Amino acid sequence: MNNRNNDTEVKPDVIAGRNPVSEAIRSGRPIDKILVARGEKSGAVVGILAKAKDKGILVKEVDRTKLDYVSGNENHQGIVAFAAVREYSTVDDILAYAAEKDEPPFIVILDEIEDPHNLGAIIRTAECAGVHGVIIPKRRSVGLSYTVGKASAGAIEYMRVARVTNIAALIDDLKSKGVWVYGADMNGTDYQKCNFSGACAIVIGNEGKGISRLVREKCDVIVSLPMKGQINSLNASVAAGIIMYSAMKDR
Fold this sequence. Notes:
Elements: E1 14-16, H1 18-26, E2 31-37, H2 43-54, E3 58-62, H3 64-70, E4 79-83, H4 91-100, E5 106-111, H5 116-129, E6 133-137, H6 146-151, E7 161-164, H7 167-176, E8 180-190, E9 200-205, H8 213-218, E10 221-224, H9 236-250
Parallel strand pairs: 2-3, 5-6, 5-9, 6-7, 8-9, 8-10
Antiparallel strand pairs: 1-4, 2-4
Helix pairs in contact: 1-2, 5-9
């Protein structure tokens, strides 16, 4: 499949067609999600979706025009997969890496970040700030796509990124391991008054909605950034960067 320099350029993480998608799943290649044409019920596609379900891969039904667009009008046969540009780690991998470095865990949790440029920028800053790992949800979140990798400026090769089913349950688990959880949101404690020196996780919310109510309730502390202008919010990656570097200073 050739890349083309137009609005329908096919990125390297796009796999179109029944056989290519089936082989990608069979080979164990990490896949973020599969898009299937609405109402597609052919035997081959049903078999592919069954394999995807067994592996816990997210599947979404979309109009064929969407598949035409993302595949660059290639012959997608009603199914397109988006592969991750590198394998995901686990939360245990992240904690083990912190232990290996003899440092208290320093984690960034992203609650439904949808913009790949934001995720890439956060991964880039996290790598520079000494974060041990980034955790994202499996659903309603951008994954490790080609665009994310490009926006990370290579940091994606060094940063451990884990995906979990439930962010709230993850926070409970981290707290049971002695990790203090800080949620970034409005109407909290000024981040400059917080001490991030111990085992900590910083939660950054969705670009529009912020962190969800349940996730906010699970956090130990809500931290805020002072706002002096007319706009009352910062870009998610900028807010994450400011708090990560404040934590790096404390650590």
